[in-house]
């Protein structure tokens, strides 16, 4: 994989992480599991990341793209 492609992927990922600071998904969990009786419930789980992480990825991607142009 070329370094320019890695840089572009990091730039896109950084922008996405700045715009969306996390996501939520639903997971089924067993509440009661007593032999033949099973009761489950839907639980919402949230995944968050700090916005500065997106900025770090964005800057790192820009640095990679700029330095790969100079060496090519």
SSE sequence, one letter per element: HEEH
Total domain modules:
1
Low confidence ranges: none
Please compute the radius of gyration using only Cα atoms. 20 Å
> What is the average of the pLDDT values?
88
Strand order of the largest sheet: 1-2
The largest β sheet comes out as:
2 strands, antiparallel
The total beta strand count reads 2
Keywords:
72 residues, transmembrane helix, two-stranded antiparallel ribbon, 2 helices
Give the structure's gist in a few sentences.
With 72 residues, the protein is α+β, with helices and mostly antiparallel strands. It is built from two helices and two strands.
Structure description:
It is a single chain. With 72 residues, the chain is α+β, with helices and mostly antiparallel strands. It has one domain (3-71). 53% of the residues lie in helices and 35% in strands. The protein is built from two helices and two strands. It has helices at 3-19, 51-71, and strands at 22-34, 37-48. The chain has a two-stranded antiparallel sheet. Helix 1 (3-19) runs antiparallel to helix 2 (51-71). The longest helix has 21 residues, at 51-71. The protein starts with a helix and ends with a helix. The model has no long low-confidence stretch (mean pLDDT 88).
